[in-house]
User: What shape does this take?
Amino acid sequence: MWNVSGRDWKGKPASYIVSNVLRGVGGGNVILLHDGSHAHLGADRSQTVIATDTLIRRCSSEGYKFVTIPQMLALQ
Assistant: This one.
């Protein structure tokens, strides 16, 4: 279902996550990022939150729009 991964599960800094996403992003991509539900495994998603904010601002400024999967499928 996704075709671009931020590889945020590696516990790397936000800049690493942003770089991974921007390297593969284009129109019609589905970006995979993880939520904070893995706290019991020691996962810290604070870098994912920072990266998400950065990605939304940067991609929006470049003309990309963020939509739900059903919205994206309706456009095709």
Remarks:
- The domain at 4-75 is CATH 3.20.20.370 (TIM Barrel).
